[in-house]
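Regression check, pyridoxal-5'-phosphate case 385:
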Amino acid sequence: MKKDFFKDSKIKYPAYEPWISDADKKIVSKTMEQDMLTLGPQLEKFEQSFSKYTNAKYAIAVSNCTAALHLSLKAIGVSTGDEVIIPDLTFVADANAVLACNAKPIIVDINKNDFFISIQNLKKNITKKTKAIIPVHIYGQVCNIEDILDVAKDNNLRVVEDCAHAVGTFHNSKHVGTIGETGCFSFYPTKNMTTAEGGMVTTNSKKIADSVRQLRSHGMTKSLKDRYSKGYPWIFDIIEPGYNYRLDEIRAALGISQLKRIKKINALRRNAALYYHSKLKNIPGIILPDMVNDKTHSYHLYTIRVTEKFRLSRNQLFKKLKDNGVRTTVYWMPVHEYTAYRKFAKSSSTKNTKSMYNEILSLPLFPTITKNHQNKVINIIKSCK
Ligand SMILES: Cc1ncc(COP(=O)(O)O)c(C=O)c1O
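Current build output:
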């Protein structure tokens, strides 16, 4: 077991540990010897293998998932004055990506008994300015995407899927991120697969793919390869100014290697999740995540709900686990509670997220977690009954 990253000597059981294999190290070190360290063969190969894995026609790698969200929204035409609906229970990246387009995020409450956006509230928040919805496959579970697609169709709205937690999440045999117009993936260290920092846009639309590819590299109308193989390298146009959201070769190489063993990674996560499930069932006041028979889940996070019927509150249980050397955390504070976003939520539509927020706690879950580690977590929770 590694030492606690934050140097807390009391912590013996981290919430997460990265899994970098010998094969990962080998490919990274080999890539560092390449002549070209960005926009080269590793990037192309990573994109091809991600597109094959998800069965998306196009996969465009970017520097992180927030960039993927930003470019997806730009590519579907979100701009000044538009509104984009996001759930209250998500990471602030969704709100930030909307704001980066000079548009307005509209924060909508979740359902009372699951983690997904409330369809009733979603409908209430649609205005003439609404352009798109960002459904989130939170914790690795497919969200209520069918209902969202119906609402989108009825109201002529675009759908950008937030798949940050969802490499390996399927819906009716389709990988998520191929259902809406784009899917946005994160390869941040804690995610199912990592490139340290990194992200991917998937889409079946050539128009969107071309736009994302241009915008990730300043808006240049010619690829690096084309510039150097045909004509004059410095001659290219910029029609729409873009960004530097490129994923370098070293990270892309790590992505190739991680993606090769994603099935194994997710199977280990699944085993660990099912072990929690079998040991934590029937504890009064603890609601377990709905993932036992769900073969479509990526098992990104194992998030329990600590309800009023449990002897301790969620915060007390967090503290008890921490005092006993176990790190856990909460994903996340509702978006509407941050100073910067408060103005984007109507108070009437944050009730369910507020009460869910007081209950959720994500237990340690990563592919190399040991039974000893999980038993420690399980025994502490059981001792609080
Ligand atoms: C649901 C969700 N969306 C988006 C992001 C942003 O991902 P990234 O850090 O790769 O920009 C995260 C990151 O944690 C996330 O959890």
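Comparison notes: The chain has a mean pLDDT of 95. The chain has two domains: 22-260, 263-383. No diff flagged against the previous build.
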